[in-house]
Specification:
7 strands, alpha/beta, globular
């Protein structure tokens, strides 16, 4: 199976599309040796969000690395942020801009199509079906798309990224009350900066599935890894740092769900 899905009991689905760490053995020889260190992974998110089972949330996660295929990119590979540096559906660069593959070993069009069918499509089919199940059961669904990233990556953005980056496709993917609840839960927390629809407004998952008119809302949270782990190899989880932000993170998710429930309790 190329992904795992844990079905929950509340109208909340959390997607973690960049937590996969497997690269199929038959592909490993095509990559630069450095790629096997998986430096651009969204590390330790399931551990950071360890409160999700108690909330009754559904959770979907991939098995394979984003270096195989990026589940948060559109199937036609259109750039998510025109005019800026972008990684592709089948990435060919590290976040530093360096080549991900050995010379002449980047995937062919046929190989990209194979990966789309083998890895990307099953994840999205399952995600869509789970959202449909939750909506049918509860009357609405909230999708929380969870990500993390190093705080400084010059190839992708200038300077240091805000600690918490809430994205709703500039408001198109979620009702404003849901966005406001997520922002309020982290506003004013000492030592933590946040922004709504800044550099990261939400990738394909947020933009594709967030349809407030159809009672499905989507929020992407891109957080700096410096909040809870070491940003350099071996990318170790920092229990002390993580415990400081987990209550806030839980409040963001729970507050967004409460705001969504209030919308449909009218």
């Amino acid at each position: 199976m190329s992904f795992s899905l844990q079905r929950g009991s509340v109208p909340l689905l959390v997607s973690m599309p960049h937590t996969g760490t497997d690269i199929p053995p038959e592909l490993q020889g095509d990559y630069a040796e450095r790629a096997l260190g998986l430096e651009d992974t969204d590390w330790h998110l399931q551990r950071l969000y360890d409160f999700l089972p108690a909330m009754g949330a559904s959770l979907i996660m991939p098995r394979y690395s984003r270096y195989v295929i990026d589940l948060n990119r559109p199937p036609d590979d259109a750039p998510m942020y025109p005019g800026a540096s972008n990684t592709e559906l089948c990435p060919t660069h590290f976040f530093t801009g360096d080549a991900l593959y050995r010379e002449g070993r980047a995937p062919s069009p046929a190989e990209r199509l194979r990966r789309l069918e083998a890895y990307w499509q099953p994840y999205h089919t399952a995600l869509a079906h789970e959202l449909a199940r939750l909506k049918a059961q509860h009357g609405f669904a909230l999708l929380w798309d969870a990500h993390s990233i190093r705080s400084r990556i010059p190839w992708l953005f200038e300077g240091r990224l805000p600690d918490l980056n809430i994205g709703t496709a500039s408001g198109a993917a979620a009702d404003a009350a849901i966005t406001d609840a997520a922002a309020a839960a982290c506003a004013g927390v000492p030592g933590v900066s946040s922004v709504v629809n800044g550099r990261f407004k939400g990738g394909y998952i947020t933009r594709q599935y967030g349809r407030p008119a159809d009672h499905v809302h989507a929020v992407q949270l891109e957080k700096c890894q410096s909040l809870y782990m070491q940003e350099v190899a071996p990318f170790a989880y920092d229990e002390v740092l993580a415990k400081k932000i987990q209550p806030m993170l839980r409040n963001m998710v729970a507050g967004s769900l409460a705001a969504a429930r209030k919308l449909y309790a009218r």
